């Protein structure tokens, strides 16, 4: 890549999909005003849809595949493009999150249409490329083939948009423009100069700031400009479309629903037609984390008395829509308003939906007539309550917030004084151990009921609603229902002797982009409804306590009601941090901090020791299970070892139990044959819950004689969460915030979120939520440690893992290891699974025989050579990534 400046740059930008975000519209208009020729791809066509569904992975959702089709269309029609600008939308307001599908759109297109490594090499400057090729540990022909597959692709500029605030968006616009023009990174220093000096020196920054301000004024002035016209004629039927903007606006994705109704004279209104200021108060009240959900629910509340009906729009195979479409439809109907739901995929056609449109139009006209006549429409006979009749606390995550407020009151009096009962969903025995250990440290060991392992019945119980959602939702919801049923059965069997209980559901919360955050929201609504009569009959209360990277104060408050003396030092410190620790006298700050650290150390040291010991035992069992002479003997020893850990609670006792457990495992008779080893990565619930992966990790791989190295672990996940919480606490520090704000004004960002594991680079360069990026990192770690294959496990249509899949496949091809991807839904038949695992194992065993597995010494020698070569490849990749981003503004 030359470093010369570009005189007349021409770039491509997809205005479908992410292009409906205001930030992308401002960026597009800014580039045009700054003199860049912007070639836009706006509306989807049959050819674009066909290209996207053909070239992109079937594991990706339909809209994301269509996005790939748009990029392909731009490149085919305009082979002279200087770059493709593909913004990643993280958030526009810092109060909400986007779905995974918006987080790495450029990377997905690049992997679908070319090759990441080849593309980076092709666009390196010549001195850098020459040096890398000279140190190449790969075969030259293979590298040249990768470059050849990617040389038709222009540069990809992929900025992250985290905030719609003008200073942040201005910085994004500047950085994109600078990369298009190939400016040297040192020009960023212009931000440190006052405007008069920049003008005197002829800096283009002042001109770019004027172009940016004009773009902001033009784009923000559009929103809501047509609302008065849409509502001006009361005789027209009014229809509200509720859904993601790309589904609402793109006729190829929604069977032309908006255009059809408009042709019939209907006033069609969506959230984007309403000024943001009118929606903002309700937006902030929504118990949710997705921007599309919060905007939709706020829009619904605004539109209820203004429209004659609603249509909820979504896509098949989209887990957020699996929740959002039905959840919002229930909300609308609970207010007595009519709502129809429509879902689309690549097979949808306008003719297939026209009959439904005609039926809906008839209802809208009837409601219009009632509205014009001033007749109150009849309420439905079975309206769902907006909130169940129990205490409702916000259970969704809100990025950057520490405290969640109670949205509705009405808790039964005296609820806090009832004897507690703590339950949680099943996620494997290690999670059970951790939660049981926490309850013991809090003195609640007599007030907990551990969940039982997942079964087919569990999945059926949890699949009665949101049936298109990912399988972990059905498993966790069914598990909670089973445990709650067991608890109530036991209490009811005791009759008059049973005391009323305060039942506390422990549930992790999420803030996106993974749909995990939806679980607690819908469970908190529907489980109390389902068990309401039984709870009331026994005088029991039911509440959900959630905590993720926020909500710590709420969780501690709940537990402080149960064990105040043990928890109070933690609560005092966290509350002080939330409300401004720096406002207190210095001696008070240190007093709170020392009490906090001492209490935290006392509570968590045994928990971490137990978690590490349990994961050590599991890791050893997964290796030894492939060598056992008697099937089931390692499992029996492992279960005995885990039960030994369950009975001890001090660090010294845990270490002793760990040693005994390892001795039990090593004492099991086994063979000494050399066998292939695979690294297992993927979504954490599917990995850790044996039924969720149908025994693949703990049984099927071992039966085929494969040693298992587990990449994704609970301990690793929790440590990643703690690192992010620590970063957030530093970023929120009152002493640092003014400094960070001053630097932001000058386009310098410190303490921004980083990827959780650098080993995922350069295959996947952005956090896509869930365990997507760690899956890539752990796969690389396992491969460079000598694993012979990668087994990738994930829920069907899981977007974080679907995005990661392309990166893991590239990694496997580059390191020349076999890959097996297995997705799981709610089915229980495993013959296909057995066949796939058996075929994969047969290939690995055959490869091992070719490499001398019959002679252990020869085989180990070859394996060490392979490990050294793979580590050299890893170092080369790290150098490639560093060199390719060195001259860029957008990383």
Describe the structure.
This protein is α/β, with parallel strands linked by helices and 891 residues long. Helix content is 54%, strand content 10%. The protein contains 36 helices and 19 strands. The protein has a four-stranded parallel beta sheet with strand order 2-1-3-5, with helices on both faces. Helix 1 (22-33) links the parallel strand 1 and strand 2 (37-41). The longest helix is centred in the C-terminal third of the chain and has 39 residues, at 586-624. The protein is globular and about 75 Å long. The model is unreliable at 380-391 and 400-414 (pLDDT under 50).
Radius of gyration: 29 Å
The overall pLDDT average reads 89
Shape: globular
Strand arrangement, largest sheet?
2-1-3-5
Main beta sheet = 4 strands, parallel
Low-confidence stretches: 380-391, 400-414
> What's the β-strand tally?
19
Beta-strand fraction estimate: 5-15%
Helix content: 40-55%
Category from helices, strands and their pairing: alpha/beta
- Number of separate helices: 36
Distance between the termini: 16 Å
Assembly state of the chains shown: single chain
């Amino acid at each position: 890549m030359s470093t010369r400046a570009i005189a007349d740059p021409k770039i491509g930008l997809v205005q479908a999909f992410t292009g409906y975000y205001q930030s992308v519209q401002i960026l597009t208009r800014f580039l045009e005003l700054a003199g860049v020729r912007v070639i836009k791809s706006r509306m989807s066509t049959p050819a674009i849809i066909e290209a996207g569904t053909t070239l992109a992975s079937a594991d990706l959702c339909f809209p994301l595949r269509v996005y790939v089709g748009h990029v392909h269309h731009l490149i085919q029609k305009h082979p002279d493009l200087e770059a493709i600008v593909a913004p990643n939308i993280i958030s526009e307001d810092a109060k909400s999150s986007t779905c995974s599908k918006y987080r790495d759109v450029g990377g997905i297109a690049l992997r679908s249409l070319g090759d990441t490594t080849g593309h980076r090499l092709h666009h390196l400057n010549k001195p850098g490329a020459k040096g890398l090729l000279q140190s190449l540990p790969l075969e030259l022909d293979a590298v040249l083939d990768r470059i050849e597959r990617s040389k038709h692709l222009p540069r990809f500029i992929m900025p992250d948009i985290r905030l719609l605030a003008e200073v942040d968006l201005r910085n994004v616009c500047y950085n994109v423009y600078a990369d298009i023009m190939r400016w040297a990174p040192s020009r960023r220093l212009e931000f440190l100069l006052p405007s008069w000096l920049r003008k005197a020196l002829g800096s283009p920054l002042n001109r770019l700031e004027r172009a940016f301000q004009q773009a902001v004024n033009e784009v923000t002035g559009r929103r809501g400009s047509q609302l008065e016209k849409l509502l001006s004629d009361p005789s027209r039927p009014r229809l509200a479309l509720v859904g993601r903007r790309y589904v609402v606006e793109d006729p190829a994705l929604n069977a032309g629903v908006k255009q059809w109704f408009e042709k019939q004279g209907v006033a069609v209104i969506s959230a984007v037609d309403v000024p943001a200021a009118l929606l903002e108060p309700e937006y902030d009240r929504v118990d949710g984390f997705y921007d599309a959900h919060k905007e939709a629910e706020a829009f619904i509340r605004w539109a209820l008395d203004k429209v004659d009906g609603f249509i909820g729009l979504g896509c098949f195979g989209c887990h957020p829509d699996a929740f959002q479409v039905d959840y919002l439809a229930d909300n609308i109907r609970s207010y007595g308003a009519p709502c129809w739901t429509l879902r689309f995929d690549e097979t949808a056609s306008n003719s297939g939906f026209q009959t439904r449109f005609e039926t809906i139009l008839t209802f809208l006209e009837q409601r219009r007539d009632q509205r014009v006549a001033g007749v109150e429409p009849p309420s439905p006979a079975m309206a769902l309550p907006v909130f169940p009749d129990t205490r409702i606390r916000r259970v969704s995550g809100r990025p950057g917030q520490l405290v969640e407020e109670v949205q509705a009151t009405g808790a039964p009096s005296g609820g806090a004084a009832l004897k507690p009962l703590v339950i949680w969903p099943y996620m494997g025995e290690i999670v059970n151990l951790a939660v049981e250990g926490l309850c013991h440290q809090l003195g609640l060991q007599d007030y907990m009921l551990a969940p039982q392992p997942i079964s087919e019945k569990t999945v059926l119980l949890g699949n009665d609603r949101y049936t298109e959602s990912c399988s972990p939702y059905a498993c966790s919801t069914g598990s909670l229902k089973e445990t709650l049923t067991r608890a109530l059965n036991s209490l009811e069997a005791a009759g008059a002797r049973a005391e009323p209980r305060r039942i506390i559901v422990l549930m992790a919360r999420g803030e996106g982009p993974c749909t995990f955050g939806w679980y607690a929201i819908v469970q908190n609504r529907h489980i109390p409804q389902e068990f309401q009569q039984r709870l009331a009959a026994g005088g029991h209360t039911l509440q959900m306590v959630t905590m993720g990277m926020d909500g710590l104060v709420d969780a501690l408050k709940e537990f402080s009601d149960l064990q105040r003396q043990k928890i109070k030092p933690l609560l005092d410190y966290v509350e002080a941090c939330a409300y401004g620790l720096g406002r207190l006298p210095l001696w008070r700050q240190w007093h709170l901090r020392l009490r906090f650290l001492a209490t935290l150390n006392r509570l968590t040291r045994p928990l971490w020791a137990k978690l590490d010991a349990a994961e050590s035992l599991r890791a050893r069992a997964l290796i030894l299970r492939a060598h056992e002479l008697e099937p089931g003997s390692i499992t029996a020893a492992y279960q005995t070892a885990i039960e030994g850990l369950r009975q001890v609670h001090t660090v010294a006792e845990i270490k002793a139990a760990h040693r005994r457990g390892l001795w039990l495992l090593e004492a099991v008779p086994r063979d000494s044959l050399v066998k292939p080893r695979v690294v297992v990565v993927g979504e954490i619930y599917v990995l850790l819950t044996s039924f969720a992966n149908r025994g693949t990790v703990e049984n099927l791989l071992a039966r085929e004689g494969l040693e298992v190295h587990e990449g994704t672990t609970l301990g690793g996940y929790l440590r990643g969460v703690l690192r992010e919480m620590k970063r957030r606490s530093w970023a929120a520090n009152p002493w640092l915030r003014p400094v960070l704000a001053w630097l932001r004004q000058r386009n310098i960002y410190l303490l921004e979120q980083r990827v959780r594991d650098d080993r995922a680079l350069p295959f996947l360069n952005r956090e896509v939520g869930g365990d997507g990026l760690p899956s890539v990192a752990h796969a690389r770690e396992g491969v460079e440690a000598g694993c012979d294959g990668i087994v990738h496990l994930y829920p069907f249509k899981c977007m974080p893992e679907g995005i990661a899949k392309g990166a893991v496949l590239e990694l496997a091809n580059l390191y020349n290891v076999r890959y097996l991807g297995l997705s799981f839904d709610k089915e229980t038949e495993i013959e296909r699974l057995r066949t796939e695992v058996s075929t994969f194992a047969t290939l690995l065993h055959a490869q091992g025989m070719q490499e001398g597995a019959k002679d252990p010494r020869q085989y180990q020698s070859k394996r060490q050579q392979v490990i050294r070569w793979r580590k050299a490849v890893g170092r080369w990749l790290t150098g490639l990534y560093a060199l390719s981003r060195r001259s860029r503004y957008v990383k």
